[in-house]
Amino acid sequence: MTESSLTAATYIGQVSGVRGGVVQVRLRDVPTTLVMIDGSAHRIGQIGAFVRIPLGYTQLYGVCTQVGSDAQPSEQDDGTPALETVAEPRLAGFRWMQVALFGESVERRFDRGVGQYPTVGDEVHVVTSQDLDVIYAQRSNPADVVTVGRVAGSDSIPAALSVSAIVNRHTCVVGSTGSGKSNLVAVLLRGLAAGPYQSARVLVIDPHGEYTSALPPDQTQTISANTSTSGIRLRVPFWALSFDELMRITMGSMSEVNAEHVREEVRRLKVEAAQHLADTPPEQAITADSPIPFSIRRLWFELRDREDLTYTAKPYSSATASVKTKVGNAQLLEANEYPPAGLGSQAPYLNPQKRHIGRQLEFMRARLRDSRFNFMFDDSDGYHPAHDGTTTSDLDQLLAEWLGSDKPITVVDVAALPAEVLSVIVGTMLNLVYEALFWGMALPVGGKQQPLLLMIDEAHRFLPREADTVTSRACGRIAKEGRKYGVGLMVITQRPSDIDATVLSQCGTMIALRVTNGTDRAAVAATVPDDLGGLTALLPSLRTGEGIVLGDALQVPSRVRIDRAPARPIGDDPKLPDAWLKPRPAASNYATALQAWRAQTTAAAPVVPAEEMLP
C-alpha cells in the first residue's frame, strides 16, 4: 500500500477483521462523511451502500450492513473524548463498518461469490459509477431483461430484472398498503408487453379490477365476471370443478353416505354424456371428478323426484307409483309433484329410496338461479350442457380464450365473484391451465414451448397459511413443479406472514417494498433467498415506490427506485386534497350506487352537469 493510495478520494478505510463472508472495516478519520468523487457525491457508511476491496487483479465487492463506533473512545489530557490515534495513520479514528461480501470481478467481469478473502490491512474503497457498471453489466442475453426502475443511489444504472428468473424461479412481491405494489406490477407488465416477446403469455388474477386501467388496451385483454364491462365474459363451467368443490358450492354439507350416493349419480351422468364427446374416454377412466359435461339441472331434477315420489301400494314399483299432480321441467328447475305421503301406514307411501336431502336440493336450486353465479351456471352459452350432456363449446375453446390471445397479457377480473367461492373459482382456473400445459407440454402451446407467467394479486386471500384450499393446492403444485413444465408463479401480497409457507419458500426472487409490520418482516427475512447479512432490516424505512430486490432476478441484492407507470391502477390512493377541493357531487349519485349494488355491477362514473353540482 502506498501513501498515495491512502489519500485517494475513494479510500475510506482498511480491513480490521474477517469472519467468513463478513468483513470488519476500520474507517479513516475524515472531517465529513460526504466525499466528492469525479463530480459525484458519496456518503461514507450508508447502510446498503457498496464498497470495493482491491486484491491485486481481483476486486472484491461488499455491501455495508452495519456501522458504529468503538465503545470506549480515548480521552485527551483535559478529559474530553477524542478520536483514537495509533501509529499507523491509516488506522486513525474509532468508527467502523461491517461489510458482507457478495462478489468479485477480474478484468471487469463480475461473478457472484468470493474466490479469495481479504486480510487485515487491505484497503477498502467506496464504489464509483464505473464499479457499478461492472456489477450491473448487461447479462449475456440482452433480451432476457425487463427494466422496472433505477438502482437507488445511481440513476445511471437501470434495475434490469431477468425475465427467465422471474418466470422459471417464481417471484414474490410484498409491501404494506400504499408502498407501491400495484405500480410495480403495472411497470413490470408494461415492460413485458412492450418488449420483443412476440409469444409472451401472462395471466393476471386481479381481485380488485384495477390493472386493466393501467395497461395499454392493444396489449391487454380483460376477462371479467362483471357483465357491465366491455371485456370478455368470464366462464368457468361447473363440470370442470372437482366433485367435492362442486358439491360444496351447490349442496353444502351432507353425510358421507349421501355424498357417495350423489357422487355415483354424477359419475353415471358423466358416463352417459361422454358418449357424445368427439373422443370418448374409456368408461373405467371416468370419475365424478373428470372434466366431462353433464346436466346439473337433470341431476337436481332426478334427485328431487326421488325425494318427492310416493307409491299408492306395495310392493313399490313403477306400476304402483303415484300419478303426478304436476309435471315438472328440469330446464326450468320445476320439480314433479305427487300426492303427499299419508300419515302412519296409510297410502300414499313414502319412497323407500328417499335420501332426506331436501334441504340440500333447495340450496342447489337457489344457487342455480342466483345471478351472481351466472359465470358458472348460466344456460345461455355453449358451455352449459343440454339435458343429455351435450355442449357446443368445450374446454379447449375456454383455454384458447384465456391463453391463446394475440395480446401478451390477459387480466382476469374476479372482483364481481362472490367472496364465498372466489378461492374455489380461481383455484379451478389455475388447475385447468396447469393441467392443459402439463399434458400438452410437447405441443407448440405447451409450457415448454411457450412459457406462462401466472400473477396472483392479494395472494393472502387465496393462499392462506395452514389452510387446505383449491387455490393453495394448485399454487403449491405450480411452485414445486411448474419450472419443469414452463409455468411460472408471481404472488403479490401485503401480508406475507399469512401466505402459505410452501409457496413462499419456492420463490427464487423476492421484491420487498416498505413493510412496517414486524411479523411480516420476519416472514420476509425467513424466506428471502439471499439477504447479504440483513438488508431486510431496511424494509420499514423504504420510501414509497422503493424496494429491495433479492434473489435470482438481479445480479446482486439491491435497493431499487421503481419507475412510475404512465397510467396508474385504479387501486391507487385517492387524490387528496384535490378530491376535496372539487364541488360536492349531487346526492342523486347514491341512487346510482344502490342500483349498481343491487344489480351486482360496478357503476360507471356518470357525467354530472355543472348545474347539478351542490355548492
Task: Give the helices and strands, then pairings.
Layout: H1 3-6, E1 11-19, E2 22-27, E3 34-37, E4 40-43, E5 50-55, E6 58-69, E7 95-106, E8 109-112, E9 123-126, H2 129-135, E10 145-151, E11 158-162, H3 163-168, E12 171-174, H4 181-194, E13 202-206, E14 220-224, E15 232-233, H5 243-250, H6 256-274, H7 296-308, E16 310-311, E17 349-350, H8 358-369, H9 374-377, H10 395-403, E18 409-413, H11 422-439, E19 452-456, H12 470-485, E20 487-493, H13 501-505, E21 509-512, H14 518-527, E22 546-551, E23 558-562, H15 578-581, H16 589-599
Which key terms come to mind for this protein?
Rossmann fold; 6-stranded antiparallel beta barrel; Thrombin, subunit H; 4 domains; single chain; disordered C terminus; 615 residues; alpha/beta; 12-stranded mixed β-sheet; 20% strand; 23 strands
Task: Characterize the structure shown.
26% of the residues lie in helices and 20% in strands. The chain is of the alpha/beta class. A hairpin with a 6-residue loop joins strand 10 and strand 11. It starts with a helix and ends in a 16-residue tail after the last helix. The strands form 4 sheets. Strands 11-10-23-22-21-12-20-19-13-18-14-15 form a 12-stranded mixed sheet. The chain has 4 domains: 133 residues, Thrombin, subunit H (Beta Barrel), CATH 2.40.10.170; 271 residues, P-loop containing nucleotide triphosphate hydrolases (Rossmann fold, 3-Layer(aba) Sandwich); 134 residues, no CATH class; 33 residues, no CATH class. The C terminus is likely disordered. Helix 7 packs antiparallel against helix 8 and helix 11 runs parallel beside helix 12.
